[in-house]
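**Protein fold record**
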Amino acid sequence: MAILVTGAAGFIGSHVAARLLARGDQVVGVDNLNDYYTPALKHARLAQFKDNTAFSFHQIDIADYDALLTVAKNARIKSIVHLAAQAGVRYSLENPFAYGRSNLDGHLSVLEVAKTLSVNHLVYASSSSIYGANEQIPFAEDHRTDHPVSLYGATKKANEVMSQSYARLYGLAQTGLRFFTVYGPWGRPDMAYWIFTEKMLKGEPIDIFNRGNMGRDFTYIDDIVEGVIAAHDLPTDRENDFHRVFNLGNDRPEKLMTLIDLLEKELGVKARKNLVGMQKGDVERTWADISRARNELGYKPKITLAQGIARFIAWRRGLAKPFE
């Protein structure tokens, strides 16, 4: 029996797959390898597993229920870590239908596969974007999440509601994870820390939204992976509580300008700053209350932003050429 990892060629998905393989699990990865950002990066992530016989990969769209069910059934999967999604706030303004297919149809497809095969546990990715216009700080799981400011956030809210319904209807054990600004090696080129790095190395100006008055709970990828694994391994014989949600953040919100200062230090380059207004669909700050994850998952993020950025830049310097 194996663990199905959707979005296995993605940033978080590839790291989770690597961690599961390292501890001896069989992993079946699926991903559609779309061109939202360069597929070369996705292929490079998958190349890390090419000699591992415990890993198999299938290029399919998770919204294709029949294809996904066939792969999962043939592999006799015991659990699912569902990390595939159309990410990005800004892109949701340009291509909203991509979010409907991947995040709504895709999530429903995964739910149906999990129900049909009676898997032990479905762990899925939610997002800090679900908190939307919430002004209570730090964000806690019991805060209201019905005022999204982006379509992406709205689809993640929908995922949680869909999962709750399947938990109640079918007793399907599920855990939703609200990720907070995940960064690190093998990350996504559409994220600020990566965009800033490439532009600074080229001597190009960087756009700083809301004139720098932004804050994020930056969370290093290794810490996130440990949280995902802990959630996956959480006992699922929970009477009358088949659906749980956890924040996975760092509980150390940092100013955007602090991120830029750290990049300048590690790159030895002074950023050319272009201060601009707030972009539509964005929020001024995020901060995760992780007390629930600490208490129930034993989740203990360890990596500071300074340490994480140093590791990312070291990885970036080791590339023969940048992924753009």
Q: What stands out?
A: The mean pLDDT is 95. DSSP finds eleven helices and 13 strands in the chain.
